[in-house]
Design goal:
There is one protein chain. The chain is 85% helix and 0% strand. The protein is mainly α. The protein has 2 domains: 1-34; 44-259, no CATH class. The longest helix is centred in the middle third of the chain and has 39 residues, at 89-127. The chain contains 9 helices and no strands. The protein has helices at 2-34, 43-53, 58-81, 89-127, 130-136, 141-179, 184-194, 197-223, 228-259. The radius of gyration is 22 Å and the shape is globular.
């Protein structure tokens, strides 16, 4: 009987801790977003964050998109060839890249790169009391450190996904026309005629949500880190893992919202 009670107690403690953590995260997000609509606005910090999240993440996102499109074309051709439906390769590539693979893979790549960097930077500031020093200088840390990064994430990731979509489709085009022997004009026509505005817009909407989640988790974990260098390392790991999980979870939720019949 005691073992059962201890087991139930452990489950209850875990559930309560999860709910408390979720509540703290939601309050942190609301507080950060509220500072976006209240002056002052630190334009220089926003520009720096936009450059860090967007421009410096471009190489890894571009390479991921190109090779994803190439592999997708090869794999889909192998599968469709069994049913003599090779002509659907172009349709599958453009649909998969714009709806799912573009925003999800770009989000995961940026989460690994930017989420860790943001958490490490803010975590170091927290354990060295620099965030407390901002408060003593009458500067709101949420407005100065968090709000610019949240806005930069919302704007930068859709821009990256636009480039990822183009490069992913281009990777599939190169493999299909050069290696698999597709006619160039036919492949381009199938791609252009099949893709719809809703496919691209839904992917960009996902990207904006993913960018917000990446910036939010990096800021949240770094802002609330403690325990010196070890705490900063833990915050960095948690930022990447939690952002990646949230990206996959919200991808399903958003797909259900956009495309469920």
């Amino acid at each position: 009987m005691t073992m059962v009670l201890d087991f139930l107690e452990a489950i209850g403690r875990a559930v309560i801790g999860l709910c408390r953590g979720a509540g703290e995260l939601v309050l942190f997000a609301v507080q950060g977003l509220s500072h976006l609509v209240r002056p002052p606005f630190y334009g220089r910090l926003f520009g720096r964050a936009l450059l860090e999240i967007g421009y410096f993440s471009l190489p890894v996102v571009a390479l991921t998109a190109v090779f994803t499109g190439m592999v997708l074309a090869l794999q889909s051709y192998t599968g469709f060839a069994r049913f003599s439906a090779q002509g659907a390769v172009a349709n599958l590539v453009v649909l998969s890249v714009t709806r799912e693979l573009g925003p999800v893979l770009a989000g995961l790549m940026v989460a690994g790169r930017v989420g860790a960097a943001v958490a490490a930077e803010l975590g170091t500031m927290r354990v060295t009391d620099q965030i407390d020093a901002l408060s003593t200088l009458s500067t709101n840390p949420m407005k100065y450190l968090v709000a610019p990064r949240l806005l930069a994430g919302i704007i930068a990731l859709p821009l990256l996904v636009v480039i990822a979509d183009v490069l992913g489709v281009m990777g599939g085009f190169i493999v299909s026309t050069v290696k698999l022997g597709f006619n160039v004009n036919t492949y381009v026509a199938n791609t252009v005629n099949f893709v719809q505005t809703d496919d691209v817009v839904s992917g960009l909407a996902k990207a904006a949500v993913f960018g917000f989640l990446i910036s939010l988790m990096g800021c949240y974990q770094g802002y609330n880190s403690k325990g010196g260098a070890q705490g900063v390392g833990s915050a960095t790991t948690l930022a990447v893992v939690s952002a990646s999980i949230l990206i996959l979870a919200f991808d399903y939720v958003l797909t259900e919202m956009f495309f469920a019949q």
